[in-house]
Amino acid sequence: MDQVIEVVDSHTGGEPTRVIVAGGPNLGTGSMAERLSLFREHFDYLRSALIREPRGSDVLVGAIVCKPKNPASTAGVIFFNNVGYLGMCGHGTIGLAVTLARKGLITPGKHELETPVGNVSFVLHNNHRVSVDNVASYRYRKDVSVEVDGLGTVTGDIAWGGNWFFLVGNHGQEITVDNAERLTDYCHRVREALVAHGIAGENGHEIDHIELFSPPTNPEQADSKNFVLCPGNAYDRSPCGTGTSAKLACLYADGKIKEGDVWRQESVIGSIFEGRIRALPDSTYEQGKVIPTITGSAYISAESRVIIDPEDPFAHGIG
Ligand code: PYC
């Protein structure tokens, strides 16, 4: 018998999110980290069925909405992509908020959201505009140099923004969409080199996102432009919510932003997130951790019923 799953697709600054709104598996009542383990162990085929070709694409991020553990929260969520699972996802949270509003499940205002890496919250301003208060973010190590095959020495900061990032300012690359193939190759090589040299995030966590920066296209509209390579080798079309959070943590650690400032991060395709910080002074990391607030807009692009036909040789996706 066919398995039928209802999904809503949206995009946030060009980066797509596919949210399972009905027909998903029952993951029990544990924490989101526990439910992520269950999903990974028993339902990973759904991740690849929904995200990989022929139904999806490498750039798509998926999400399953869960009943929260704490009844005071609006929902729980697990994010996934073409190769695995994400701790948090900023563009995905904005897409999720707009999806829940579309389904009539939430109204404008503040909402708590449980994720595998901790609770976040978001404010739905209207049908499109959302601000996400992300997990506490921090710079773990500054100016880390790595020898990269074919590129020489590359130096960057390691920071946590809900995923692990290596942030590089001095790379000599042109950050434009036309140059995406070369940028992808550059970032891929850097990521491989970090793994090969045992350079990791705190507690040995793999750094699976590489983020390059350049001046913005128009300094009146943005403060910086980025290119973010995601774990499955697709680049983020949005400025990357967790990547912008990692950047804000580095800027704060360098004394370049303070509470009340607005940082406008442009993506490689020209979409913009606004970032703000709230300082957490009692931290052991340099000047401290920050709670980043990321504001962006998402738009619904489809409401569909996905059919998984057991006779289909590619029912669970290609690859
Ligand atoms: O917006 O945090 C984000 C994100 C992570 C991967 C793709 N987008």
From TrEMBL:
<comment type="similarity">
    <text>Belongs to the proline racemase family.</text>
</comment>
<dbReference type="Pfam" id="PF05544">
    <property type="entry name" value="Pro_racemase"/>
</dbReference>
<dbReference type="GO" id="GO:0047580">
    <property type="term" value="F:4-hydroxyproline epimerase activity"/>
</dbReference>
<protein>
    <submittedName>
        <fullName>Hydroxyproline-2-epimerase</fullName>
    </submittedName>
</protein>
<dbReference type="InterPro" id="IPR008794">
    <property type="entry name" value="Pro_racemase_fam"/>
</dbReference>
